[in-house]
Amino acid sequence: MQQPAHHRSPIFLALLFSVLAPTAARACFTDQPAASTVQTRTVIRKQGDDGVHTYRIPGLTTSRQGTLLAVFDLRLENSRDLPGNIDVGLIRSTDHGATWTPMQTILNFDHKEPGSSGNGVGDPAILADPRTGKIFVAALWSNGNRGWNGSGPGLLPTETGQLVLTVSDDDGVTWSAPINISATVRGRQSDWRLFFNGPGRGIALRDGTLVFAAQYREASGVPHSCLIFSRDAGTTWTVSAPAIPGTPPTSESQVAELTDGHLLLTMRDESRSGQRAWARFEWNQNHTDGTWSQHWSTVPDPTCMASLLSLPDGGLLLCNPNSAKQRTALTVRYSSDNGKTWNSGLLIDGRPCAYSCLTQLQDGRIGVLYETGDKSSVETLTFTTFPVNAVTKK
Q1: Is residue 327 part of a domain?
Q2: Which of 165, 72, 160, 61 is nearest to 122 (CA)?
Q3: What is the DSSP secondary-structure string of 134-195?
């Protein structure tokens, strides 16, 4: 059990983070979020539903037609990570989250295959392309012990975990068979021990480029956050350089487009610093030839996944547990300056909470799908909404 962080005054925190953040990109905030003003809170999946032991790793997006699409792990036999008997499930809502369709499985490999350790696929991220209407879901396929710890160097499914996609052309009603893009995206990087998406959601840039946050483990096992891009509506994908080639090591990340067209990446810091890691990706014509800024650290984080969302007015929202040590007190913060500073935020749920995913509904409200429960963060996937000004005016 992780111990709670000692209370620190806002003045102390401001001084501390002014030292930790680079001069060009300092960020500040207070550590007391406003009381929750969420409009709804609906459990859309709970342990045991449809015979599934545990639902985890939420992804959420809004399609061109305004449909909400939620994806998640179906951890069929226990709550553990890959490898295991895990599929990717999806539910849809055409009424802004008031009601949801029955669950469907959209990624599934034969768990009875000998030596496959459950043949699991999980950690999904979902992306809606507003130009074509296509929906993409990326996930990690583990054939055998090919999850985070079991993957080795190589490109084959028998050597390392695989990055797979499934695609829908009908607003998420039906889905393609798995498309394995692992080897083509990685190219000659056969020495990497693992390469896959960052869970949550991908984005479509204003110029039509599709982007997923991603991560890999180098030959030594050290993890790095990066991005993958498609400039041809998802037919081919390329990988960027790591956001932080040195330290700290980073893994699960999420990306947002900034007002100037460049990208902001928020990353899980595997050094257990108690803060999120950040970097800015600047590019001209070719995304893979872009340049990463010097990284910085700010906003409390208990080494957890977080969600990042661009708003139409150019503002940004960040959702993560408001603690340096414990996965609790899910909070949404707002930035009006491309992520340099963040406000104190809006408390979404004070209970144990972990992974989350933000989207903007067609009616303008913000939706959050997140892990929570009364005793632990893995008991339910809960959906909640709130008006944008509930966080932007704090």
Answers
A1: yes
A2: 72
A3: -EEEEEEEESSS-STTT--SSSSTTTS-EEEEEEESSTTSS-PPPEE-HHHHHTT-TT-SEE
CA–CA distance, 206 with 213 (Å, rounded to integer): 17
Does residue 2 form part of some domain?
Answer: no
Structural domain of 152: 10-392
Domain-embedded: residue 286 = yes
Return d(Cα 192, Cα 183) in angstroms, integer: 11
pLDDT by residue (tens digit) across 261-288?
Answer: 999 999 999 999 999 999 999 987 666 6
Active site (catalytic) residues: 252
Residue 128 DSSP label? E
Q: What is the CATH number of the domain that holds 339?
A: 2.120.10.10
3 lies in a domain? no
Contact 371, 378 (CB under 8 A): yes
Count of residues making up the chain: 394
**What would the pLDDT profile of 89-129 be if each residue is shown by its tens digit?**
999 999 999 999 999 999 999 999 999 999 999 999 999 99
The verdict on pTM exceeding 0.70 is: yes
- Total count of domains within the chain: 1
